[in-house]
């Protein structure tokens, strides 16, 4: 007799797992179906997807869906049911991939993309470059610096920048060009102190 708060699917100590009308344990039936159909489902998916790991995931998805059924003995034609479930899992996977645009992503390949290790020399060069950038920014006249910061860091349109600093759009463009040239030269070549 079920008690209040007992979950009908949760196994209780000393109680056998739920059995279907045929008297077969659901776990045993699911395992038998997995042994019988895993290789056929794998071939089905491998012919339809480019990645073998994705094929294995889809096979697993079919059995997860199968495990969520209340009674496996109600399936009259397991072949048809499993492959219809497989087709639905594949269709759902294609929809998810389309939403995520997974086919536009490339896997990281160290040979192609280079090493991501940061050597001490690379870290030092980066710190020195940042220091040169900051020094060059401080060297700019105030109005030129303001135009550069509003445009480059705040992303404002040039007309808005010009209005904010009280100059014409053309004058703001000249200030910005002057700042870019000065900073590029400073960052490019280290100065001797």
Structural description of this entry:
- The protein has 193 residues and is mainly α.
- It has two domains: 26-104, no CATH class; 120-188, Arc Repressor Mutant, subunit A (Orthogonal Bundle).
- It has eight helices and no strands.
- Helix 2 (52-67) crosses helix 3, helix 6 packs antiparallel against helix 7 (158-165) and helix 6 (142-153) crosses helix 8 (169-188).
- The longest helix is centred in the middle third of the chain and has 23 residues, at 78-100.
- The protein is elongated.
- It starts with 25 loop residues before the first helix and ends in a 5-residue tail after the last helix.
- The model is unreliable at 1-23 (pLDDT under 50).
Short structural description:
64% of the residues lie in helices and 0% in strands.
Primary descriptors:
single chain, about 190 residues, mainly alpha, elongated, Arc Repressor Mutant, subunit A
């Amino acid at each position: 007799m079920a008690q209040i708060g007992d979950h009908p699917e949760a196994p209780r100590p000393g109680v056998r797992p739920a059995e279907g009308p045929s008297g077969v344990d659901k776990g045993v039936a699911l395992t038998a179906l997995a042994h019988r159909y895993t290789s056929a489902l794998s071939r089905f998916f491998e012919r339809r997807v480019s990645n073998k790991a994705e094929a294995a995931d889809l096979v697993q998805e079919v059995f997860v869906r199968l495990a969520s059924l209340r009674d496996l003995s109600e399936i009259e034609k397991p072949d048809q049911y499993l492959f219809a479930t497989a087709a639905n899992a594949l269709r759902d996977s294609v929809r998810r991939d389309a939403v995520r645009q997974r086919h536009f992503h490339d896997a990281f390949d160290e040979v192609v993309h280079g090493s991501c290790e940061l050597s001490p020399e690379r870290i030092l060069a980066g710190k020195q470059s940042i220091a040169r950038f900051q020094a060059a920014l401080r060297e700019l006249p105030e109005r030129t610096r303001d135009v550069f910061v509003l445009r480059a860091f705040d992303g404002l349109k040039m007309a808005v920048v010009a209005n904010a600093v009280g100059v014409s759009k053309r004058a703001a463009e000249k200030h910005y060009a002057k700042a870019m040239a000065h900073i590029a030269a400073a960052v490019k070549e280290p100065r001797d102190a």
